[in-house]
Amino acid sequence: MNIYMIPNQHNAGAGGHQPAVFRMAVLDTDLDHIFPSSVLPPFWAKLVVGLVAIVCFARSYDGDFVFDDSEAIVNNKDLQAETPLGDLWHHDFWGSRLSSNTSHKSYRPLPFLAACFHPMGFHVVNILLHGGISVLMVDVFSVLFGGLQYTSKGRRLHLAPRASLLAALLFAVHPVHTECVAGVVGRADLLCALFFFLSFLGYCKAFRESNKEGAYSSTFWVLLSIFLGAVAMLCKEQGITVLGLNAVFDILVIGKFNVLEIVQKVLHKDKSLESLGMLRNGGLLFRMTLLTSGGAGVLYVRWTIMGTGPPAFTEVDNPASFADSMLVRAINYNYYYSLNAWLLLCPWWLCFDWSMGCIPLIKSVSDWRVIALAALWFCLIGLICQALCSEDGHKRRILTLGLGFLVIPFLPASNLFFRVGFVVAERVLYLPSVGYCVLLTFGFGALSKHTKKKKLIAAVVLGILFINMLRCVVRSGEWRSEEQLFRSALSVCPLNAKVHYNIGKNLADKGNQTAAIRYYREAVRLNPKYVHAMNNLGNILKERNELREAEELLSLAVRIQPDFAAAWMNLGIVQNSLKRFEAAEQSYRMAIKHRRKYPDCYYNLGRLYADLNRHVDALNAWRNATVLKPEHSLAWNNMIILLDNTGNLAQAEAVGREALELIPNDHSLMFSLANVLGKSQKYKESEALFLKAIKANPNAASYHGNLAVLYHRWGHLDLAKKHYEISLQLDPTASGTKENYGLLRRKLELMQKKDV
Question: Which of 378, 362, 237 is nearest to 305 (CA)?
Answer without folding.
Answer: 237
